[in-house]
């Protein structure tokens, strides 16, 4: 009888602990692994190194599923598809997949055409990263800047 009572108390304690724990959040999952630089470079509409100058809320448009922000970059080095000294790129926010780029930081950016909104976009499932962590991407871009973009896989 005493063993049953103790077992019941242990079960009750376990249920209380589980029910009072924070709810787990789902991690951001990309469809497939990040592509190698040669594939990402070839498929991107624009590739550049730049500094985030401003982060602006994007207006919510019909059909949007997620809230977006515009990242305004000062372009430091163009590798593909950008002709202006500044460029605006959209990315989603308010999800587990937030990109969290920081104002004043330098990034190596892969941007893709968002034909529905007629703008460029990027996100966590791209190879966009802080410039100081983009050695492989920089090497590839420098090696093929002005040359054939044949994959080197």
Features:
153 residues; alpha+beta; 5-stranded mixed barrel; globular
Distance between the termini: 68 Å
What's the total count of β strands? Answer: 6
Order of helices and strands: HHEEEEEEH
Which structural class is indicated by helix and strand composition? Answer: alpha+beta
Query: Could you list the spans in which at least 5 consecutive residues all have pLDDT below 50?
Result: 2-26, 148-153
3D structure, described in words:
- With 153 residues, this protein is of the alpha+beta class.
- 24% of the residues lie in helices and 31% in strands.
- It is built from three helices and six strands.
- A five-stranded mixed barrel has the order 1-2-3-5-4.
- A hairpin with a 5-residue loop joins strand 2 (67-80) and strand 3.
- The longest helix has 19 residues, at 2-20.
- It is globular, with a radius of gyration of 22 Å.
- The model is unreliable at 2-26 and 148-153 (pLDDT under 50).
Brief rundown of the structure:
The protein is α+β, with helices and mostly antiparallel strands and 153 residues long.
């Amino acid at each position: 009888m005493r063993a049953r009572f103790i077992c019941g108390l242990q079960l009750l304690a376990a249920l209380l602990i589980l029910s009072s724990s924070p709810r787990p959040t789902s991690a951001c999952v990309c469809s497939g692994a990040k592509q190698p630089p040669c594939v990402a470079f070839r498929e991107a509409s624009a590739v550049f190194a730049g500094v985030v100058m401003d982060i602006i809320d994007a207006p919510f448009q019909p059909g949007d599923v997620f809230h977006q922000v515009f990242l305004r970059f000062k372009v430091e080095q163009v590798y593909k598809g950008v002709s202006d000294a500044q460029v605006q790129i959209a990315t989603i926010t308010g999800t587990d997949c937030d990109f969290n780029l920081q104002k004043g930081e330098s990034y190596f950016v892969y941007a893709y055409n968002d034909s529905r909104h007629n703008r460029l976009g990027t996100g966590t499932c791209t190879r966009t990263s802080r410039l100081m962590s983009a050695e492989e991407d920089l090497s590839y871009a420098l090696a093929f800047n002005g040359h054939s973009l044949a994959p080197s896989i």
